[in-house]
Amino acid sequence: LQGLALVSLLQTCLNHNLRPTTPDAAPPHAKIAADIVACIFLHYQQHSVMTVALPVAVKLLHKGNSELSRSISSYLSLAAIHSAPLLAQHTHTIVDSVIAGNYSLARILPGLYSESQDPLHRHVMTLVSLLPRCHNTSDCQPLLQLFSLVAAHNPALLENSLPQLLECLSHHTTVAATLKVVLQLARWRPALLTPYLAKFKAAVETQTEARTLGLQVVLVLGKVSSDSAKIALDYTAEHLPSVDKTGLPDVLSEVASVVSEHQDSVSEELLLAVRACESAAAHSTLMRIQGSNSNTNSANSNNIKHSNSGGITIVTISSNTDVVPAANHTNTAPFSTNNSMDTNKLEKSELKFSGYDCSKVPD
């Protein structure tokens, strides 16, 4: 009941001018509203209080008082923990406040995404355009986290904003969060990211904390073609020793995925680099690489059949002709596998076929 009474009192404050008259002087009702909000959100875990408090509290975001707006933002972050569905009903109002310059409020947007995607989708391009304006990189992090969610669910919305997103690769505090967005986009349409491969390699080489994600992006882009796969795998082999142990399974999983599509791109350097990792993930990757190579070799030999007749191994190769040249035979005449032959008429000392010495055939 006390919480509900405070909400009613806060509502009356909305009827008064809350704009500061001077930079250092806040109107009396603004101070009262700030104190009431602090008391109300002591009950942020109580659903009944938040149900009536949130619709009133979000209105304070647009009363022209930036200090009050920042204060409200902190309390709304608490409400988002336990009352995200309730807060999601006001996503449009919250997004408008972020766009207006209340960047600290962006921290609650990722938590609202699962509850209210449409308002965020409608404003995603505008939100991306805020990245260069965020002087505090900590304000960029929640926005990039939001864009990662968007990229996973509706990546086409970020296609036109890609150049602005990639600008965040130049800041070490945002490079990892940016690469998470890029990785989602690369899985969706790798050709879209291929022109920026040099940027991703630069992130791998200069940002230790982003090496795992950077190599994953390079590998995903490597699936575009066999040539791209070889470049990506060779590049990964070069940097694999410096990948931290926690990120190694993710990189090796991507390696195996590329190899499964482009078996002919595997180099000895890659195999040596994977073996040197000495981990369960590396062993699993080696098994998958070897399995892919075995499948290729098996496919190449599917047309070769062996049979044994009268102690002589006969190899039949499927082709447009039934004639197979005799191996290591001094006589260049063809050897037919379809015609019956009297082995006693053959020069046993001269014929060796498929590794079998026919001189040992009993008369």
From TrEMBL:
InterPro entries listed in its UniProt record: ARM-type_fold, Melted-like
Protein name: Protein melted-like
Biological process terms in GO annotation: regulation of signal transduction
Keywords, sorted A to Z: Cell membrane, Membrane
Compartment list: Cell membrane; Endomembrane system
Ranges in coiled-coil conformation: none
GO cellular component: a single term: plasma membrane
Membrane-related topology note: Peripheral membrane protein
Organism: Hirondellea gigas
MF annotations from Gene Ontology: phosphatidylinositol-5-phosphate binding
